[in-house]
Amino acid sequence: MMFRIAFLGIAYALLVSTGAMAQFAGAAEERWAFIDVAGAPGDGKEALENALSNQLLNRGFTVTGTPAAHAYEIQGMVRLFPAGRGEQTIRIDWTVFGPEGTRLGNVTQTNVIPKGSLDRRWGQAAEAAASAAAQDIMQYIAQ
Length: 143
Prior knowledge:
The chain is α/β, with parallel strands linked by helices. The chain has helices at residues 2-28, 44-57, 124-137, and strands at 31-38, 61-64, 71-82, 87-97, 103-114. The protein contains 3 helices and 5 strands. Residues 1-22 form the signal peptide.
């Protein structure tokens, strides 16, 4: 009877320590990201950064407001070009860097929009761009 109690005590201790190790391993795998957007008219910088931050938060990332040594860095560059009458082409290039600073890949988005439509508020345009970009950005980030 004493042996069974001792064995159960050891088994319980192993279960508890295994759970603690799993929690520790989960903390070690925490992924961080820093997002910086340049060149966007209107509130585009803030809107795109916030929208992409939300996409990454939903995928388990911690998003930081400043570059960090252990964080992935995602740089967005927005450019607008003349298109047809009353239109312009928007191009957003997202470059993904690993925590060690190595360039992991690039995602490019282009679209034709009404001229001046993003000069003030981006609203749903930022949400749509970030949602589409996040899917492609994730292919460069270790899952």
